[in-house]
Amino acid sequence: IQISIQYGNSQQLMSWIESRRCDVAFLPNIPQGDDRLFSIPLPPDRLVVFVSQDHDWAERRSVSIEELVKQRIILREKGSRTRSIFEEAVAQAGHDLNDVMEISGREGVREAVAAGFGIGIVAENELLADSRLRALPVSNAELVHAEYVVCLQEMRSLRVNDAFLDMVGASQKDTG
Q1: Which pTM does this prediction carry?
Q2: pLDDT classification of 88: cutoffs 50, 70, 90
Q3: Number of other residues whose CB lies within 10 A of the CB of residue 121
């Protein structure tokens, strides 16, 4: 068995699954009704804003969309589901993002926020413990990030994939 872990945005991961470049992926919002895919839903996670410990908001309990759109927002590249969820919430609130810095990958976003370049958005369970950062919920927007473990139906029968998917399914039963 050879295990290789790759990181990418949602579009890249779906492409890798379809081309069989990877066997299994963790993906948000999989295409509904795609019979080629087998998926196991994971518990939903909310998106949070995060700021550097030196930011004026570091001691706050929450922020609003209206406050966020007045700040520099550091976002992942287009194709990131985190980015699209946040952009949809801003648009639904009737606002535009005017000051956006785009950085590829969540690690780059985290480092830019820690350095004080702006405010980031991340799934709460992806924000690792980091004394340089503070997480804040968005008070007036429903920012929920659903994720699935996904593989092609035809790849499900491979013994290693089947064992991994069984383990994921069992862990969901234990937490549910």
Answers
A1: 0.74
A2: very high
A3: 25
Q: With cut-offs at 50, 70 and 90, classify the pLDDT of residue 174.
A: low
Task: Identify whether the C-beta of residue 13 lies closer than 8 Å to the C-beta of residue 25.
Answer: yes
Instruction: For residue range 54-63, list pLDDT tens digits in order.
Output: 999 999 999 9
Nearest to 93 by CA among 72, 67, 73: 67
pLDDT score, position 176: 55
Query: Using CA atoms, how far apart are residues 86 and 66, in angstroms rounded to an integer?
Result: 13
CA torsion angle for 156, 161, 166, 172 (degrees, to 10)?
A: -100
Instruction: For tokens 């004080």, name the residue.
Output: 116
- Is the dihedral angle over the CA atoms 112, 114, 115, 120 positive or is it negative? positive
Report helix, strand or coil for 114.
helix
